[in-house]
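Box S1 | Example of a co-folding query
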Amino acid sequence: MSLTLREALAASPLPRLEAHLLWQRVLGVPRAWLIAHDADSLEPAKIDAYRTLEARRLAGEPIAYILGHREFFGRDFLVTPAVLIPRPDTELLVECGLRAIRDVREPHVLDLGTGSGIVAVTLALERPDARVRATDQSAEALDVAQKNARVLGAKLLFSFGNWYDTELGSKQFDLIVSNPPYIDARDAHLGRGDLRFEPRDALTDGADGLRDLREIVRGAPDHLSPGGILCVEHGWDQAAAVRSLFLRQGFADVASERDLSGIERVTRGCMPT
Ligand SMILES: C[S@@+](CC[C@H](N)C(=O)[O-])C[C@H]1O[C@@H](n2cnc3c(N)ncnc32)[C@H](O)[C@@H]1O
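Box S1 (continued) | Returned holo structure for S-adenosylmethionine
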């Protein structure tokens, strides 16, 4: 049966934006084309291809994994089920990092738990003079991050391993950034929505949500230069606990930054000089 795009869109149970994204993928066209050509007849093979993607979405698979990419800080990043789907919230971490190295020439930067590489690659592209190193304990994630760096033309070094346990050298970084797993392992959200499809090790530390943050804050003084800055992303209710971790570790100028909803989502601190 022949169907126009308009009829196919009207018949789809998906929200209009998601249906558009899937049709863009199937037809290989931009969104404006879909709108201008919605009276065109669709080939049966294209309708079948759309229905396959639609069924995956209806089964709950995140749209970013179906499409294989997601925008972050104005750039398009490859994503696979091996990595966390980039969140707009993480742009706050990048902004905090960029401010921290604003006055440092050729800064040495470390991104712990790089996943798809969004933070490290963005910092490297926004500050081409920076020497950026990115680590992860997932080889599959490092593979995705390396592809993103290559496609986007960012120069950085990658290390595999558990947080600082990757021969990083000591006291050399002007900036350490991290968006670690910080969801409490008992949080029911882990079994809902997109989170069901994302790597569990990228979401939760398997404990109270602060275990990896503790390890990152505790290890930072051995790797930061005097005056070096640590910026970490954390959950909406963790800012006070994370500030205490920073203070206990001897950081100065400890402060949390709020996202657009006014929630403290990133905490930073400076190593005394
Ligand atoms: C919340 S995801 C963040 C990914 C990416 N930085 C982002 O913002 O989208 C946390 C990342 O930390 C990595 N990770 C978890 N435990 C780790 C560990 N012990 N050592 C190094 N990386 C770890 C995970 O593999 C995952 O890629």
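The chain has two domains: 3-59, 82-270. The first helix runs from residue 5 to 11.
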